[in-house]
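tool_call: predict_structure(chain=1)
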Amino acid sequence: MKTLSEQMTAGSVAPPRMWLNGRLVPPAEARLDFLTPALHYGIAAFEGIRCYRTVRGPAIFRLQDHVERLLHSARVLGWRELPFGLDELADGCKQVVRARGFEECYIRPLIWLGDGGWNLTVDAGKAHAGIAVWEWKAYLGAAALEQGVRANISPFTRHHPNVMMTKAKISGNYPNSVLAKTESLRLGFDEAIMLDGQGMVAECTGENIFVVRRGRLVTPPPGAILEGITRDSIMTLARDLGYEVVEQPLSRDQLYIADEVFVTGTAAEVIGLREIQTGQFAREWILENQAGRPAFDKLRAEGKAHPIEEVGRRMRELMSWLRDARKDSSEAPRKPRPAAQA
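tool_result:
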């Protein structure tokens, strides 16, 4: 019987490989002991990264930014030293992509507390690192890109910054999203919109949210949200296209009077909403009508066309966001590094 890792990483002619603490291993060797503290307490930090097919070969989107955030998350979680630095983890991502032979894939690096930690501190344990890749094409469903998704306002509140560290992608943060997403799916929706502790719009369970009104893009400020790398990419593209982009508190009623609403994330990429509902209040958009969502379509075209077609001035700028999966960074000696150096 195939392991879950073997099932998820199926899809290429190359044998399954994962990166574990500095070396490539088959999934059967990438196993955790039942008493691994990370499994019991959620003491882990992770990233989600996309690798795209380009005319120059597979290229990883904003790899350095993702790995920096991974290390920052580990720092926020309390690690003072880590066994791997930025270059080693970035090269590990490239090595797994090459070993699997994917042209496009999703990359999942993870740093977890593998030894010690039963006294609820990272200081008594040792950090381990692993990286896996798989093909993940439609996180919110195959029809989501063209038809949009339906969302409800979740009764579950997004983490308060004084309760959990919202700027870190920590595994233990995610039951908050799991509760909201599970309820939404059971109610017949595709996604949940979460409010912050003050009742303002925060984000979805795995995506940031944008509202478009009168040609102006508004997205919630950094306070309670995870500052998404796709979010930052869209803000950059939007400004380049001449849109005004504002980070400001967003009340729930502003969702119902918006011209467009869309969400962004590495897994989901850029997806429009076609309905938002809570109780008796609902707002629908007909997304099949291209004229009805000009900002969304324009931004999606920018984000998709440039990395693939590689044309013009904008492409030369965007190429700095791509890292050739076939080339390693300059080699550096591996030694424990302060997490603060991320």
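agent: The mean pLDDT is 84. Proceeding to next step.
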